[in-house]
Amino acid sequence: MVEVPWEELAKKPKVCESLVSLLLLRLCPRAQVVDGTGGDGGRDLFEYTEANQLINYEVKSFTGRMTNSRRTNVRQSLVSTARSQPDHWDLVVPIDPNPAEQRWFDGLRAEFPFVRHWRGRSWLDTHFAAHDDLVRYALHSSDSYILDRIAEARAERDCLLRGIPDLVERYEVLSRRGQELSPHYGVRVSGGPDGTTVELTPKRVPDDADAAIQFTGQVTFRIDDPEDQARQQQFEEAMRFGGEVTLSAANLGPMTVSAPAELGIDGTIRPDMIRIASLQEDIEPPVQGQLVVTRSGSGMPVMSLPVRFDKRVHGTDGGTLFGQDLLGCIRLRVRYDMLQQLGHMQLTVDPPENFLPQAVVPTLRLLAAATPGRSLDLVLAGAQEERMSSVIAKEFVPAGWDEGEALAWADAFSDLAALQARAGQFFPVPENFTLRDARDVKEVLALMRGEEVLMRATTVSMTAIHRDVLDRAAGMDRFLLAAAHESMTFTIGRNSIPLGPCIEVVTVDKVLNLAEARRQMEREGRAEIRMRLDRDHPPRRYLGSDFST
Hints:
Mean pLDDT: 84
Radius of gyration: 33 Å
Strand order of the largest sheet: 17-16-15-14-13-18-19
Oligomer: single chain
Distance between the termini: 76 Å
Number of strands: 25
Low-confidence stretches: 140-159
Largest sheet: 7 strands, antiparallel
Shape: flat
């Protein structure tokens, strides 16, 4: 079987997309390629099935992960393909979606209901295994591609004659030997299109100089390059307080490496890239604390939330603590400077993907209370209480949220939690839960409390099965109409909550289709009546079976 080198093909998007298009044309005899001159309309191929359904196929050459920019690219394709009104739309891309990417893709159907399949790398590899001639054609190397792979296999001692089992066995043996190289460092090896990467990880904190790996050399940054200046700041902060930074060849000169003899890497090198990352330690037991929003001037607390810090890194001048609230919705990064006795707190907000509504309400209440002008304090528990305070300059809101939205969501989830408590059904917040759904929840709560709810409608329809209904409707300018439902059910996500009997009462101002309804009654013995509602008397709904309310 010819393996598809997706990462290499991705460097030539047109070649990659042509290869996938060739496969789709072979798998779907009715498919046609779209001439992309001037735009492809969000589809690279399309076909009309035997049932006359239109299916559009969008081919992407992406590899790796579906980043935000790539998701935007896909959504733009959907906006374009919607103009052709397809019955189905498939994305074909050599990426197997992870759970978060699959949820994002499934969520597209709320706006684009024709979204159907994500055909990923595994699907493509399976079909190319039966059509490997297409791969050779696309690579313009019918024989040399296979010969190169045979030459690589012969370079191995056992030639991997048994295929995958031999590869797994040799990898495990070499991996075990790698871990035995040094008592101080673990070894992890990974390969890719850019070469082989060897990662050394301390098995424990080195307790003597002989166990340390030392780099001696110069690091330079251009003062006329804003990106390089930002990288310099990141480098200095990583050295002083712990952290992570990646330096390129432009920043690096020759370096002398001194390391334990068993690693065999002493000498002078000129690296193309160096990634420096501090060893992250677990804090046992975690440091407990409170985030507190206080009023300006008086300093009186408005809202507080428990937090905990469970990881840290060290630098030459201090270190950095990493923590979060109990739900992991708010993440905290606290840098402390031991020399100047200063601290800096950074807060980010990232709502969880699966949670009970009542769990996230305290966090949202704190975010809603954290308005500009107030202060945010971090109080750490310990032998001596430590407090760090800063004035709030802008609202803390998750990406994509508007100012003030945290309060709206806090109220929405509070109502949903109250509804679940009344119904005795507890379930996570549905993935596509919106503030409009929250309004429906509030109305259902009112019904369950025995209140009347005004309905949003201007017309109403009913089916008449007797002629005298039409005669009575024709003789009245305005009349009251009540409908009884034996059982009403509120559905939210995949959950159904029975509410019991329900009465709906409307005041009819005018019958809109009386003549048409009479003709339908003559033909069919029944008729649909459409009626306009009285604006001064909005329709109302309440639970129960008593018409006298």
